[in-house]
Amino acid sequence: MPRKRLPIVTIDLPGDPDGGDRAVEYLRPIDTASASIRLLPQDSAPVEVPVEVARPTWCGCALSASMRAHLRSVWPGSAATESIEFLSPVMVLRLHESQERTRVEVLACTRLREVGAVFARVGECEFPSTATADDVVPVALKSAGNLREHVAVENQVYRNLVPGVEIENKITLRGDVSIWRLTSEMASQVGSASFPGFIPDVGNEVQRWEVFQHTFEVLDPAAERGYIAFQEQPSGAFMLKHKIFAEDTLRRVETFRHNLAVPGRDFAAFLDLEYPHLTFRALRTFSRTRFDVNLESSATGHFFGIEIDEVRTAGDEHVLRQAEIAYHRSRIHHGLDIDTVEPELERLTDLVDSYLARSGVDRERTFYSKLSFLRDIESPSGATSPTRC
Predict the structure, then answer these.
(1) Mean pLDDT, to the nearest integer, of 165-185?
(2) What does the longest C-alpha to C-alpha distance in the chain come to?
(3) Which runs of consecutive H residues, i.e. helices, occur in the chain?
(4) Buried b / exposed e across 202-239, counting CB within 10 Å, b at 16+?
(5) Can you tell me the distance from the alpha carbon of 230 to that of 236, in angstroms, rounded to the nearest whole number?
(6) Rounded distance between C-alpha atoms, residue 205 and residue 214, angstroms
(7) How far is 304 from 325, CA to CA, in rounded Å?
(8) What is the mean pLDDT of the chain?
(9) How far does the chain reach from its first CA to its final CA, in angstroms?
(10) 50-55-57 Cα angle (round to 5)
(11) Cα–Cα distance between 66 and 89 in angstroms, integer?
(12) Contact (Cβ atoms closer than 8 angstroms) between residue 336 and residue 301
């Protein structure tokens, strides 16, 4: 809870050249440098803080040392019992000014990391164009409690707007491409002009995955065609992934079951017991190495993954390399709109494709699935006969 006698420190951040709305604002330490600072004490007049040179206000997980030292010279006597170290980021106000009014987006602090702070839009309010920052801040503070249960608890920040459905574009990569090189280069460009409007998933920018997958194509009934796959977990249990799709396309039904015991690793017997209405055939086992670049649209709050992976079949090592651009979830915020998911996914896919073109990567934009890859390498003589479960 806020400490009642602690003054509010307000700083003017650099202006945003595009002026658009933000579902999310990401401030690195350098972004908090300001030459205009005021204190708003609880029971006295505002205090202008003289600033000779802009300095970061916030650095890592604390007020910067230089700012703490600078504020001590003007710290209100009424707040003497309240240490400067008690200050923490509360909100960002984005002002959209016109001749008659000023519209204010209110973004509440939702994540603090050494690399920066993240703020999510919780509401907005309007003021006459003559209003000052001192007028705006108290009103905005009252609205900052909107969506508090989400912004204040990290594991409640997101929801999947299309549960049980995978939404994903794919770019198949030709030749012997280093998936780590592509990952590391793209990750370093998120938040720059190369990926405008996207910020990293702060504190979780890149992930590494490696799994072995045992795949069974579902042949019948037609309404459930697709595949069921088993991925072994470190505990020895399995995760079951069930995808339903008649053809390779943008959207596919996808569900999971976790921590399954498969006695003797007899996957066919497991399917016979659990899915007796399906006809399936076993396909080749493969290993999948994947690096994920995790990022978020600052305008919409939608979270995406650029997943660069390499699949190798066991034994004969047929290889498939792809960049998958997938929607995962959305940050809960004021103005959340499901209709912006696919347009923003397409925009991100175009940016990834442009990066690959600049890097000289031979590629093909497609929906080519791993099921199609496994089908294509099956020869008539080596194909596994359909099995009835």
Answers:
(1) 97
(2) 87
(3) 65-72, 133-143, 148-151, 179-189, 267-274, 341-358, 370-377
(4) beebbeeeeeebbbbbbbeeeebbbbbbbbeeeeeebb
(5) 12
(6) 29
(7) 7
(8) 91
(9) 58
(10) 95
(11) 16
(12) yes
Tell me the Ramachandran region of residue 145: left when phi exceeds 0, alpha when psi lies from -120 to 50, beta otherwise: alpha
Average pLDDT of the segment spanning 169-185: 97
Alpha-helical runs (H) found in 108-190: 133-143, 148-151, 179-189
Q: Average of pLDDT values for 241-253?
A: 97
Tokens coding 247: 């053809």
Residues 6+ apart with CB under 8 A from 349: 169, 171, 325, 365
pLDDT of 330: 97
Token output for 222: 């037609």
The CA–CA distances, whole Å, from 31 to 164, 187, 264, 327 equal 38, 19, 56, 28
Does the pLDDT value for residue 386 go beyond 80? no
Put the strands of the sheet holding 24-27 in their side by side order.
24-27, 116-128, 101-113, 91-97
Higher pLDDT, 60 or 266: 266
| Angle, in degrees to the nearest 10, between helices 179-189 and 341-358 | 120
Look up residue 277 and give its two tokens.
Answer: 């209405």
Mean pLDDT of 164-175: 97
- Cβ atoms 267, 216 nearer than 8 A: yes
Task: Report the distance separating Cα 309 and Cα 183, nearest Å.
Answer: 10
Count of CA atoms in the C-beta half-sphere (13 A) of 57: 22
Q: What is the DSSP letter of 52?
A: S
Edge-to-edge strands of the sheet including 47-49? 8-11, 37-40, 47-49
Q: At 74, list the tokens.
A: 């003007």
**11-39, pLDDT tens digit by residue?**
988 888 777 899 999 999 989 988 788 88
Rg, C-alpha atoms of the chain: 26
CB-based contacts of 317, cutoff 8 Å, min separation 6: none
* pLDDT tens track for 304-314: 999 999 999 99
In this predicted structure, what is the pLDDT of residue 41? Answer: 81
Q: What are the residues facing 289 on neighbouring strands?
A: 210, 310
Query: CA 218 to CA 156: how far, in whole Å?
Result: 35
